[in-house]
Write a structure and sequence with these properties.
This protein has helices at residues 61-73, 95-110, 117-132, 140-145, 181-186, 194-212, 216-222, 229-232, 239-248, 270-285, and strands at residues 3-13, 22-38, 43-49, 78-84, 148-154, 157-162, 168-175, 253-256, 263-268, 291-297, 304-305. With 308 residues, the chain is of the alpha+beta class. It folds into 2 domains: 3-163 and 300-305, Ribosomal Protein S5, domain 2; 168-297, Alpha-Beta Plaits, CATH 3.30.70. A hairpin with a 6-residue loop joins strand 8 and strand 9 (263-268). The structure holds adenosine-5'-diphosphate and ligand LJ64HWYM. Adenosine-5'-diphosphate binds at residues 53, 60-62, 83, 89-92, 94-96, 99, 131-132, 180-181, 258-259.
């Protein structure tokens, strides 16, 4: 095979209590990419559609991750990358990691699958670091593995796959403002109070248990963030109003998606997810901020090959 077309999904990182460690994969939104072998050695980004992003491999997250893998694999040919960007950069649903993970996923297919998903996550993390100025894998892991993932450690990289309850849906609202992950990280405190840490690790543990046992009540009681949300929510207009409206419409809970500005709500069942969508649309409809919304099943598969 000389060319592979892929769907590279959007992802929700943090999932309220799991800053930098928890994430899940979305189904209804993602980028398309084409990766092609070239006779000329090297990594070449030859097409970018949708958003204005750098073509130089060293300045584009897709190129940085591809170069990290290329230097390790040392093939006697090169790769050309086309990016059809649908996920707005800086939207908080893993735009940069879709590109960083997508290029290495496609290259791995063309190389005959020499790397497993954890190794691909390692290369993708190098690209993600260009955008956020830190190596975190909580978007990359769900994009590559699908479903919910827990990044137990980044060095050495260890990723756990968490089962997804069948009837779990996500509703996303994306206010059209840009928040750069690097800036949203810079406002976070360097230290946290012990009482907040206790609440946070209790919620991470119980959220994982709730996911394993499809205990929606426990998932609902675990979707809290004592550490990051108080700081970042100030960057998102109408954040508390969205949370309140989503809860009233039946959501299990809501939180900042990644570093924002998108806000996710987890819901039991698609009907509730659609009701939540209508409710949160009303919150922003009364403002002068443009927004879009969507409902997504949790994508258990992650990246998809689209070749016929
Ligand atoms: N292929 C790419 N896709 C998305 N963003 C990229 C890409 N390459 C470089 N970037 C840069 O990464 C930043 C967006 O990443 P980030 O702030 O983490 O947002 P997101 O939450 O959407 O991933 C922007 O400055 C963008 O120019
Ligand atoms: N854990 C990171 C996740 C950033 O996600 P993104 O989708 O906003 O890139 C963080 O919260 O900084």
């Amino acid at each position: 095979m000389n060319e592979v077309k892929i769907f590279s999904p959007a992802t929700v990182a943090n999932v309220s209590c799991g800053f930098d460690v928890l994430g899940f994969c979305l189904d209804s939104v993602g980028d398309d990419m084409v990766i092609r072998k070239t006779d000329k050695k090297g990594i070449f980004i030859t097409k970018i559609e949708g958003y204005d992003l750098p073509f130089e491999a060293e300045k584009n997250v897709a190129g940085v991750s591809a170069l990290a893998m290329y230097e390790d694999a040392k093939p006697d040919f090169g790769f050309e990358i086309e990016i059809y960007k649908k996920i707005k950069p800086g939207s908080g649903v893993g735009s940069s990691s879709a590109s960083a993970a997508g290029s290495v996923f496609g290259m791995n297919v063309l190389l005959g699958y020499p790397y497993n998903n954890t190794q691909l996550s390692y290369f993708a993390m190098k690209g993600e670091a260009l955008a956020s100025q830190s190596e975190h894998a909580d978007n990359i892991a769900p994009a590559l593995f699908g479903g919910f993932t827990l990044v137990k450690s980044v060095s050495p990289l260890e990723i756990l796959e968490i089962p997804t309850p069948n009837n779990l849906y996500a509703t996303i609202i994306h206010p059209q403002i840009e928040i750069k992950t690097s800036e949203a990280r810079a406002i976070l405190p360097k230290e946290v109070a012990l009482k907040d840490a206790i609440s946070q690790w209790a919620n991470v543990g119980s959220l994982i248990h709730g996911l394993y046992t499809s205990n929606y009540g426990l998932i609902e009681r675990s979707l809290h963030d004592a550490i990051v949300e108080p700081h970042r929510s100030k960057l998102i207009p109408l954040y508390q109003d969205v949370k309140t409206a989503a809860k009233a419409a039946g959501a299990l809970g809501s939180g900042i998606s990644g570093s924002g500005p998108s806000i996710f709500s987890l819901c039991e069942g698609i009907d509730t997810a659609k009701k939540v969508e209508q409710a949160i649309r009303k919150v922003y409809a009364n403002s002068d901020i443009a927004f879009d919304t969507y409902v997504s099943k949790i994508n258990a598969e992650g990246m998809k090959i689209q070749n016929n």
